Amino acid sequence: MGRQKPVLLPKHKKLLRELGENIKLARLRRKLSTAQVSERANISRPTLHSIEKGSESVSIGLYLQVLVVLGLEKDLLLVAQDDELGRKIQDANLSTNERAPKKK
């Protein structure tokens, strides 16, 4: 039995495709071949192709390995750095429980 693909909304699939395209463009700007990047990231060329297509079935760890090869790993730190909604909730002093309430 194989792994199940996550079910994503079309707008979220578009985000992943854009991420994959950005990774591909970064590779091309550095004049690196798919063989070079896949070897350095210790992944197969088909997996790199899936990443560059924005496949949702590829683990985030493999995306990170490719970003490391391209020298872009610190870009992951930008995710959720400016959490506007979280800051609004914090500013409104809304209480958030440590855990969800127990079901009865």
From TrEMBL:
<dbReference type="InterPro" id="IPR001387">
    <property type="entry name" value="Cro/C1-type_HTH"/>
</dbReference>
<dbReference type="Pfam" id="PF13560">
    <property type="entry name" value="HTH_31"/>
</dbReference>
<dbReference type="GO" id="GO:0003677">
    <property type="term" value="F:DNA binding"/>
</dbReference>
<dbReference type="InterPro" id="IPR010982">
    <property type="entry name" value="Lambda_DNA-bd_dom_sf"/>
</dbReference>
<protein>
    <recommendedName>
        <fullName>HTH cro/C1-type domain-containing protein</fullName>
    </recommendedName>
</protein>
<feature type="domain" description="HTH cro/C1-type">
    <location>
        <begin position="23"/>
        <end position="77"/>
    </location>
</feature>
